[in-house]
Specification:
The chain is mainly α. It has one domain (9-171). Helix content is 74%, strand content 0%. It contains six helices and no strands. Helix 2 runs antiparallel to helix 4 (53-76), helix 2 crosses helix 6 and helix 3 (30-48) runs antiparallel to helix 4 (53-76). The protein is elongated and about 65 Å long. The chain starts with 8 loop residues before the first helix and ends with a helix. 18% of the residues are buried.
Length: 173
């Protein structure tokens, strides 16, 4: 996940970017826990014929948390998927224009859309304190579904930081 990847100096000065970086680096460690738990599940199931639904669901919760919470960090560190054909060899000014346009035209509307369509879904889950349908499952589905709103909130925070950085870059001569 690029834990050792340094963030540029401009990003370090931005509070929003620091929050995203700290959050992303923190949840990235959950991938290690996922690997250990998955290994334990496999050993228990095939070695000792034991299995617990809550442990399997725990791995799913961890995976969702890493994916949804670290997405903004992946965007910040440029580790997200990008079509590089016209971008890779371009000037910093051109890259800033592309990043600003992409952020304002695609990422911000998408994030707002996710918040709008996800709000009632998550609220309904909280109203009932939704739990797993499986016997022995985790009683925290409402928290898992809350990640549907955490993802766009963090993406919007990073969008703010990215837009400011791009505008700053475009202001340079």
């Amino acid at each position: 996940m690029g834990l050792e990847q340094p963030v540029n100096k401009t990003v370090q000065q931005d509070l929003a970017a620091r929050i995203i970086s700290i959050t992303g680096r923190s949840v990235a460690w959950l991938t290690l826990l996922m690997v250990v738990l998955t290994f334990a599940i496999v050993v228990m199931r095939y070695g000792f014929n034991l299995g617990w639904i809550w442990l399997q669901e725990g791995v799913t919760y961890l995976h969702a948390t890493v994916f949804m919470v670290a997405a903004a960090w992946a965007f910040q560190t440029d580790d997200h998927v990008r079509v590089d054909i016209f971008y890779r060899g371009s000037s910093p000014r051109y890259k800033s224009m592309v990043n600003l346009a992409g952020t304002l035209l695609f990422l911000v509307p998408f994030s707002l859309f996710l918040i709008i369509i996800g709000w009632n879904y998550v609220a309904a889950s909280w109203e009932t304190m939704e739990a797993s349908r499986e016997a022995g499952g985790l009683p925290l589905v409402f928290l898992l579904k809350s990640l549907i709103l955490v993802l766009p909130a963090l993406l919007l925070l990073q969008s703010w930081s990215t837009a400011r950085s791009c505008i700053r870059q475009l202001g340079k001569k």
